[in-house]
Amino acid sequence: MPRPTIADVAKAADVSVSTVDRVLSGRHPVRQATAERVQRAAEAVGYHLAGTIRHRLGQDRPARTLGFLLQQRQQSLYEMLGADLQEATAASKTIRGQAVVRFRDYQEEEVAAERLLQLGRECNAVAVVAADHPKVTQAIDILHEEGVPVFALISDLTAVNRAGYVGLDNWTVGGTAAWFISNMCRKSGQIGVYVGSHRFQSQDASEMRFRSYFRERAPEFQLLDSVSTFEDAHNAYEITLDLLRRARDLVGIYVAGGGITGVIRALREDPSALSRNLVVIGREVTPDTQKALFDGVIKVVLTHPRRLLADTLVEVMAQSTISNQGSRIVHPAIPLVICTPEDVHLYT
C-alpha cells in the first residue's frame, strides 16, 4: 500500500495542497481552525509527517492552568498586567496554557490567603501580589505540600516554600529614586515618603534604600516620616493636601506604593505645587502617570517592563509545572525601566 502523500492529506482535509504545505513549513500563516483540520486529516490518513504538524500546532505541549491573584482591578496597573498575563499564557511555547486571573476587592491578607488556596486548587501553578503575612505564608506552605508552586509577583515574600519571585530589585529602585530627587531638586529641603503598606517587602526595601542613600550621600535633605496610603488613591489625596499645607520646605515626594492617582490629583489642585517645582517620583507606568509625566506633575516614573514581566513570570511558572526544581527558589532578573516624558510612550 503506497504511503499517504500531501495530496491525500489535502483531499481528506478539503483544502489545497499549498495550504497543507504552509502548515508543514510554518513559513506562512494559516488560520488555527484550518491548521487543526489539516492535522486531524494527516493523522486519519496515516501521513508520516503528522507528528511535525502536531508539533507546529503545539499540541505536543502539556496543557496547564496558571493562576494569578492580583491587586484591585481599579488600579489600572493590575488591569493592564492581567491582560498581559492572559496574552503571555496563551502565547507560551512551553505549555498549552490557560490563565485564570483574579483581582482582589479586599485589603485583608487573611482573605487573600483564603483566595490563594482556592486558586491554587484550581491551577497547576499560581502567582500572587500580596503583603507579607503569616496567613499568606501558611497558604503557600499548604499549596507546596499539595504540589502547587506559588510565585511572589512584584513584591517578594518571606515564605520559605515559595517557588520564586518575579519582580524588580527594590533596593535598587529605592536608591535610584533617591539619586533622582537629590540631583534634581534645586535646593535642599523636606522630602515626603509614601508607602502603601510596610508589609509589602518591595516597598519596605525600597524605602530602606531611599533613606540610606540620603544618609550617605545627601544628608542636607530632611526626610519626613513615611506615611501609609493603604494602597488607596483617596487616602493618598488627603495625605498630599495635608503635606502641602504643613511642609513649607517640601522639595520632593517619593511614592513607593499605591495611591499615585490621588497624589497626582492633589498636586494638580494645589496652586502652590507648581510654583514649588516639586520633584515627584512615582512607580509604574499607567495612563495616569504617563499624563502626569507629560504635564510635569511627576518628574520620573520607575517601572517594571510590564510585558517582559508577564512573559518571564509565565515561563518560570510553566517550567515549574513540567520539571521539579526542588528547593531552588527562582529569581529571574527583571530590569528597572526609568521613564521620563521623552520615552514613556515606549513602555505603555
Give the helix/strand layout.
Blueprint: H1 6-13, H2 17-25, H3 32-45, H4 50-56, E1 63-70, H5 76-90, E2 96-103, H6 109-120, E3 125-128, H7 134-145, E4 150-153, E5 164-166, H8 170-184, E6 190-195, H9 201-217, E7 222-223, E8 227-228, H10 233-246, E9 250-255, H11 260-269, H12 271-276, E10 279-283, H13 287-295, E11 300-303, H14 306-322, E12 337-339
Parallel strand pairs: 1-2, 1-3, 3-4, 4-5, 6-7, 6-8, 6-9, 9-10, 10-11
Antiparallel strand pairs: 11-12
Helix pairs in contact: 1-2, 1-3, 3-4, 5-14, 6-7, 8-9, 10-11
Protein name: Transcriptional regulator, LacI family
Pfam family, one: LacI
Organism: Methylobacterium nodulans (strain LMG 21967 / CNCM I-2342 / ORS 2060)
Describe the structure.
- The chain is of the alpha/beta class.
- The protein folds into 3 domains: 1-39, no CATH class; 63-167 and 306-333, Rossmann fold (3-Layer(aba) Sandwich), CATH 3.40.50; 170-303, Rossmann fold (3-Layer(aba) Sandwich).
- Helices cover 47% and strands 16% of the residues.
- The protein has 14 helices and 12 strands.
- The chain has helices at 6-13, 17-25, 32-45, 50-56, 76-90, 109-120, 134-145, 170-184, 201-217, 233-246, 260-269, 271-276, 287-295, 306-322, and strands spanning 63-70, 96-103, 125-128, 150-153, 164-166, 190-195, 222-223, 227-228, 250-255, 279-283, 300-303, 337-339.
- Strands 6, 7, 8, 9, 10, 11 and 12 form a 7-stranded mixed β-sheet that branches. Strands 2-1-3-4-5 form a 5-stranded parallel β-sheet, sandwiched between helices.
- Helix 7 links the parallel strand 3 and strand 4.
- Helix 3 packs antiparallel against helix 4 and helix 8 crosses helix 9 (201-217).
- The longest helix is centred in the middle third of the chain and has 17 residues, at 201-217.
- It starts with 5 loop residues before the first helix and ends in a 9-residue tail after the last strand.
- The mean pLDDT is 93.
- GO terms for molecular function: DNA-binding transcription factor activity; transcription cis-regulatory region binding.
- Keywords: DNA-binding, Transcription, Transcription regulation.
